[in-house]
Design goal:
Blueprint lengths: L8 H14 L12 E5 L11 H19 L3 E5 L1 E2 L3 H14 L9 H15 L2 H9 L9 E2 L3 H16 L3 E11 L4 E3 L4 E17 L5 E6 L10 E4 L13 E3 L6 E6 L11 E4 L5 H10 L25 H14 L3 E14 L7 E10 L2 H12 L4 E3 L4 H9 L4 E2 L1 E2 L9 E3 L5 E3 L3 H10 L8 E2 L3 E2 L1 H5 L2 H4 L10 H6 L4 E4 L4 H16 L6 E4 L3 E2 L16 H8 L1 H9 L8 E2 L2 H22 L3 E2 L5 H26 L3 H24 L7 E2 H18 L4 H8 L26 H23 L8 E6 L9 H8 L1 E7 L7 E5 L2 E5 L7 H27 L1 H6 L2 H28 L1
Parallel strand pairs: 1-2, 3-4, 9-11, 15-23, 22-23, 24-25, 26-27, 28-29
Antiparallel strand pairs: 5-6, 5-14, 7-8, 7-10, 7-13, 9-12, 10-11, 14-16, 17-21, 18-19, 18-20, 28-31, 30-31
Helix pairs in contact: 1-22, 9-10, 9-15, 16-17, 17-18, 18-20, 19-20, 19-21, 19-23, 20-21, 21-22, 23-24, 25-27
């Protein structure tokens, strides 16, 4: 085929993705091969592709494509999460635009609207992942509310309940007034907020005296049940046993004593509001205090507040502060910073709230999940996240698993007319259970609450293979446990820990072997990319502008595992330039005419060097992959292709302008090019597939694609040959550098002499002459006076410039270089003279510094000789 002057990413992407799909290259079914399984962290069904998705799914695609090429049965399962809170919020907002209030709908009607919304918008992000080149087995696409997955969730709830892990009770929970639902502790984001600290006067009952209480929440004073002092605080000894009046409403409450109160904080007095603070609730339980909940589910004040009924809590805060000032019960107001909890989903300020909820006991369940990571059965990559994982698992709290929503898996609990309850899968089973327990089954109704979304997604690696309902099925036994999970550190506890917990409970096995934790994508200023900040580019626009391969390379070049990615569009430009480099290299090779003459010795030597260098680089790349250093694996590939192959090998073997190339050499070049395309394919799938099918590589049938080509295997390599050629490259580079520094045209041939060496440079004579543009290459034993000298490794070389150089300018240049090297030598000597450095540093680090010293001293000696030669 003829090859276009420039690469057209859009055309290649559309053509080859369709081709891969049509030929079933992404499809996986169990067979005799080793399975390699990844389950996609299911993005919210409400989502659209953002930069975090781009990074996460690019990494997964690189891993799955390489595994496929390594001959493994690669299975990547895609899907979406029903995201209870986010989806219900979207649907409610959509209905509101149509003039429909959720309160006016039945549960069934609302769910009809929700499913319609899901069918219309829910697949957007998966279609966008196709644009990224994601080679998922799309026939396996799952949704966490598919009937089979929902049944698995209900079965698990019943299983955990029977095992004694699930219970129902009134507890203080995190309440989201906007979503009108409880949240688990992990769904609360703590933020430092500028607030006001209000010092309020509470009058002592039957006295003109008052005490001062400091609070950031004056809107809750109407829910106060007591004032607490420390029994050891001498300031308040006289108040023991007395009572105070709640400001504005004059309700009498007791003064109690408890060492919980910090004498040093604020005024040393604490208002106790058991219904609106977790610590106050525990104090209330201890002292048998009244519980007054003055807030409605939406965060407005209710009748128990007695005043400002129906007002939003934050408006009420300002109004109460004003009312207190009017009756002179505000002592002072100060600026104050404190941590406040926000809903991870709606960003509403969380209210601590006493509520009847369903909980899962976590202490026993968490132990095996910690052991798997502690003993290395599951590896966290990078390991730095283990400490926070361990801390969380050792201090885990019971998990509030019920949500006051309609979208999600409805909890399989049933109530009778007396509000007694049983857990059962169906209404019929519930009725039978009630009757078996000798209780009434009249007025049977199901629990309104749904389960926390993380409860369902915790089953994901099992449920996508129907392993919960049918654990003996062939696919589950073949694909589970999965291999690698690629996800974000912020859901280490939300999701990863819970998958391990549930996987162990069901199978006594971990759900995966490795967890690759990506960093956060940030902008150049270090800010997390977000729509609200307007600092996040649209991934689709980036792929349109720079090509998908270019964006993939751009992101991966700067994304080491667990470290945040400081993203800049210039990385995508670098990726696009890399794609163009490969394209242009191919155009160069494609344009060569051939002759039947045998390859020259220089061409054979170049091929021997590159073959060895390729295998050396392949060892490095494989090692990087084994250690999940994908950024390093790509950079090694990048340098091998750009520097070693394009800048050196092709230049060494290419024929003179318009001259033909030896067919033997072209065949060798084509062979290397195929290896390079295989190596680059996981990172750059579209470009590599486009070039793979050129006739220069011979005839290919429909299934002969690079996506399923065999990944290169490492052959033995000779480091001596590589080091020899490194010296050859250094000679060529030094001659070019000398030309450049002295303003000598590259077209002017220069004589070069190489002193006696343990390297047989005569073997590479033709290559040196060609690439360094040498008029005469000689090998000498003695120093050459009046020549510019340099070291290539330990070999001294001389360039005779004759009339091509300004002696005065050269004298100045060499003097500056000597001055720089002497300064460098001083810094190295200081380091080596530091006993602490020499004793504590690794031996190889010390040896490296000693090598630097020796190299600098050798260079200074040669430069000083060059200086004396100039006269």
């Amino acid at each position: 085929m003829s090859i276009a002057k420039t690469y057209n990413p859009k055309e290649a992407e559309e053509k080859w993705y369709s081709y891969w799909m049509e030929n079933g290259f992404f499809r996986s079914t169990p067979d005799e091969r080793e399975p390699y399984t990844i389950v996609m962290p299911p993005p919210n069904v409400t989502g659209v592709l953002h930069m975090g998705h781009m990074l996460n799914n690019t990494i997964q695609d690189v891993l799955i494509r390489r595994a496929r090429m390594l001959g493994k049965n690669a299975c990547w399962v895609p899907g979406t999460d029903h995201a209870s809170i986010a989806t219900e919020t979207k649907v409610v907002a959509l209905l509101k635009e149509k003039g429909i209030d959720k309160k006016d709908l039945s549960r069934e009607d609302f769910l009809t609207h929700a499913w319609e919304w899901k069918e219309k918008y829910g697949g957007i992000i998966l279609k966008q992942l196709e644009k990224l080149g994601a080679s998922c087995d799309w026939e396996r696409t799952k949704f966490t509310m598919d009937p089979d997955l929902s049944e698995a969730v209900i079965d698990t709830f019943i299983r955990f309940y029977k095992e004694g892990y699930i219970y129902r009770g009134v507890r203080m929970v995190n309440w989201d007034p906007q979503g009108k639902t409880a949240l688990s502790d992990e769904e609360v984001i703590r933020k430092e907020v500028n607030q006001k600290l209000y010092y309020i006067r509470y009058k002592i009952s039957g006295s003109d005296e008052y005490i001062i209480i400091a609070t950031t929440r004056p809107e809750t004073i109407m829910a106060d049940s007591a004032i607490c002092i420390n029994p050891n605080d001498p300031r308040y000894t006289h108040l023991k046993g007395k009572k105070v009046l709640v400001p504005l409403i004059d309700r009498e409450i007791p003064i109690i004593e408890d060492e919980y109160v910090d004498i040093e904080f604020g005024t040393g007095c604490l208002k106790v509001t058991p219904a609106h603070d977790l610590n106050d609730y525990e104090l209330g339980q201890k002292h048998n205090l009244e519980i007054l909940d003055i807030l409605n589910d939406d965060g407005t004040l209710n009748e128990k507040a007695q005043i400002l009924i129906g007002e939003d809590r934050f408006i009420a805060r300002k109004k109460i502060a004003k009312l207190l000032e009017e009756v002179e019960q505000i002592e002072k107001i100060e600026d104050y910073k404190s941590q406040v909890g926000f809903s991870e989903r709606t960003d509403a300020v969380i209210e601590p709230k006493l509520s009847m909820q369903w909980f899962c006991k976590m202490e026993t369940l968490a132990k095996p999940a910690l052991e798997y990571v502690e003993n290395g059965t599951i590896k966290l990559i990078p390991e730095k996240f283990f400490a926070s994982y361990k801390h969380w698992m050792e201090n885990v709290k019971d998990w509030c698993i019920s949500r006051q929503l309609w979208w999600g898996q409805r909890i399989p609990a049933w109530y009778n007319e007396k509000n007694e309850w049983v857990v059962a899968k169906t209404e019929e089973e519930a009725r039978a259970t009630f009757l078996a327990e000798g209780k009434s089954a009249a007025g049977l109704r199901q629990e309104d609450d749904v389960l926390d979304t993380w409860f369902s997604s915790g089953l994901w690696p099992m449920s996508v293979f129907d392993g919960v309902r049918n654990p003996e099925n062939e696919e589950f036994k073949y694909y589970y446990p999965t291999n690698d999970l690629v996800t974000a550190p912020e859901i280490l506890f939300f999701w990863i820990a819970r998958m391990i917990i549930m996987g162990h409970d069901y199978t006594q096995k971990p759900p995966f072997k490795n967890v690759y934790l990506t960093g956060i994508v940030r902008d150049k200023l270090g800010r997390k990319m977000s729509k609200s900040l307007g600092n996040s580019p649209d991934p689709i626009d980036l792929m349109e502008q720079y090509g998908t391969d270019g964006v993939r390379v751009g992101m991966l070049l700067s994304s080491p595992a667990g470290n945040d990615l400081m993203f800049d569009v210039s990385y995508c430009e670098q990726g696009r330039n890399f794609a163009n480099k490969i394209w242009n290299a191919f155009r160069l090779v494609k344009g060569w005419e051939t002759t039947d003459s045998p390859a020259t010795e220089a061409q054979k030597n170049a091929a021997t060097w590159f073959d060895n260098r390729f295998n050396q680089a392949l060892v490095e790349i494989n090692e990087h992959f084994d250690n999940y250093r994908l950024s390093d694996a790509l950079m090694t590939t990048y340098k091998l292709i750009w520097d070693d192959f394009c800048a050196w090998y092709l230049e060494l073997v290419k024929p003179a302008y318009q001259a033909p190339i030896e067919k033997e050499t072209l065949d060798t070049v084509a062979g290397f090019f195929q290896k390079i395309l295989k190596l680059a394919h996981p990172f750059m799938p579209f470009l590599t597939e486009e070039l793979w099918h050129d006739e220069i590589f011979g005839e290919r049938d429909a299934k002969d694609c690079v996506i399923v080509a065999e990944y290169p295997s490492v052959a033995p390599f000779d480091e001596k040959i590589i080091k020899e050629f490194d010296s050859v490259k250094q000679i060529i580079s030094e001659v070019r550098s000398i030309r450049n520094s002295k303003g000598i045209s590259p077209k002017i041939e220069l004589p070069l002499a190489i002193s006696t060496s343990d390297i047989n440079f005569a073997k590479y004579q033709d290559s040196i002459v060609k690439l360094a543009n040498i008029s005469d290459l000689s090998f000498v034993q003695d120093k050459i006076q009046g020549a510019v000298s340099f070291l290539a490794g330990k070999t001294e070389c001389y360039v005779q410039l004759e009339n091509n150089v300004d002696a005065e300018a050269e004298h100045e240049r060499i003097s500056k270089e000597i001055e720089y090297l002497k300064g460098f030598l001083i810094s190295v000597d200081k380091k080596l003279a530091n006993e602490r450095f020499v004793q504590n540093a690794k031996p190889e680090v010390v040896a490296n510094e000693q090598n630097k010293k020796a190299d600098a001293e050798a260079k200074i000696k040669i430069l000083e000789e060059s200086l004396s030669n100039l006269g």
